């Protein structure tokens, strides 16, 4: 694709995002949400499954859905920026899972915030990696691969203009297509602290500072410089949207605890929140024990976040794989979060009352969660 047509298409997509998304935070209601994914779940591949899931979630008191739209280097729709998820192609599906879910959710009064799970991360074998080696961040030894969950991944350079264009394009096209209520980035919208020794970044750092990057990847000034590049991409997303239309995007961020997020991923979510770069903060708290969960709710940055004027939710593990949180413990975690003024977002759909519901069974968990949500989060969301 030639540069000029690509820029014109991107401007149109971002204009659509700016006009579709709300201009302010949604009232005072706390979120009761869930992350929905294709892995491991059959949800996305049949329209009937999507419709039933939305109906059940609405009936159980959920008000916000976070469907995964960008994962493992592929999308869940036909994209000009990345390949479609292979299983969706093989299924022969004629529907767009995210658009279908959004339409059904809006019909029932729920909001939809697509979750760009992989952010700036790509599988090491992805086509974009082979075709654009200059986009990859590198370690001091010249390697790009980082092992994540037993698999080799690479990170695209948030300071590179080609990476930025692609990142904005991935966001713009799904919003243009599906009329969603916002977008969510998570802990993969990051710059891993050991990376940044690739030729492009070295050259940019020399231009800005007159020096070579220090050998110590944890050097504070070096960390600050790289953090600013990541922040700049987030700022560019917002400023481009504002420049191309009225209003501003609703951007949700789902990071880990602050110290870990900054020291390992260069995500300064405190600065991003205070600087108006994010509109919602969903802090992941997957501590298995109640004691550990409550301790993590008392982290200084999280306690301070309650006074920042944006919704602050807690990500809670409902169930994944062989790990299911029993209803008594799950209910107590939700109560602990609610007592501190937080909403809750569950990871993930199949762990609520699906295939990872555990010994309690789906019906018991769905009924129990419905009662819990009505008792703690009864106030309605403000009108769209």
Number of strands: 16
Q: At the third CATH level, what is the topology name? A: TIM Barrel
Cα distance, first to last residue? 37 Å
Structural class: alpha/beta
Number of domains in the coordinates? 1
Strand order of the largest sheet: 5-2-1-16-13-12-11-10-6
Radius of gyration: 20 Å
Helical percent range? Answer: 40-55%
Report on the biggest sheet: 9 strands, parallel
Report the portion of residues in β strands: 5-15%
Which segments are poorly predicted (pLDDT under 50) over 5 or more consecutive residues?
1-5, 9-27
Mean pLDDT figure: 88
CATH architecture: Alpha-Beta Barrel
Shape: globular
Please give the CATH class.
Alpha Beta
The CATH homologous superfamily is named: Glycosidases
- Give the helix tally: 15
């Amino acid at each position: 694709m030639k540069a000029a047509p690509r820029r014109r298409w991107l401007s149109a997509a971002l204009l659509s995002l700016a006009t579709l998304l709300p201009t302010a935070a949604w009232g005072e209601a706390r979120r009761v949400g869930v992350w929905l994914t294709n892995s491991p779940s059959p949800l996305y591949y049949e329209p009937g499954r999507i419709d039933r899931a939305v109906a059940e979630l609405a009936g159980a008191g959920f008000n916000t859905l976070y469907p995964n739209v960008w994962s493992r280097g592929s999308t869940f729709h036909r994209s000009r920026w990345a390949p479609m998820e292979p299983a969706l192609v093989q299924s022969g599906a004629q529907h767009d899972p995210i658009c279908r879910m959004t339409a059904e959710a809006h019909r029932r009064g729920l909001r939809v915030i697509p979750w760009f799970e992989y952010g700036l991360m790509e599988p090491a074998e992805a086509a974009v990696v082979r075709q654009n080696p200059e986009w990859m961040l590198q370690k001091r030894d010249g390697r790009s691969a980082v092992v994540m969950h037993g698999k080799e991944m690479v990170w695209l350079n948030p300071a590179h203009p080609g990476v930025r264009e692609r990142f904005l394009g991935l966001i713009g096209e799904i919003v243009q297509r599906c009329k969603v209520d916002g977008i969510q980035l998570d802990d993969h919208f990051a710059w891993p602290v050991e990376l940044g020794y690739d030729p492009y970044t070295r050259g940019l750092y020399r231009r800005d500072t007159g020096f070579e990057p220090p050998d110590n990847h944890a050097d504070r000034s070096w960390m600050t410089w790289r953090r600013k590049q990541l922040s700049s991409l987030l700022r560019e997303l917002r400023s481009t949207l504002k420049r191309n239309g009225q209003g501003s995007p609703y951007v949700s961020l789902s990071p880990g605890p602050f110290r870990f997020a900054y020291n390992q991923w260069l995500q300064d979510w405190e600065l991003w929140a205070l600087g108006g770069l994010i509109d919602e903060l969903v802090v992941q708290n997957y501590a298995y024990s109640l004691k550990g969960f409550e301790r993590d709710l008392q982290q200084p940055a999280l306690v301070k976040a309650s006074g920042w004027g944006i919704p602050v939710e807690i990500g809670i593990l409902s169930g994944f794989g062989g790990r299911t949180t029993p209803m008594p413990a799950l209910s107590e975690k939700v109560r602990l979060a609610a007592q501190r003024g937080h909403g809750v977002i569950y990871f993930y759909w199949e762990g609520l009352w699906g295939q990872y519901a555990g010994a309690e069974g789906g019906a018991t968990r769905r009924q129990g969660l419905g009662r819990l949500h009505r008792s703690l989060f009864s106030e309605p969301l403000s009108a769209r």
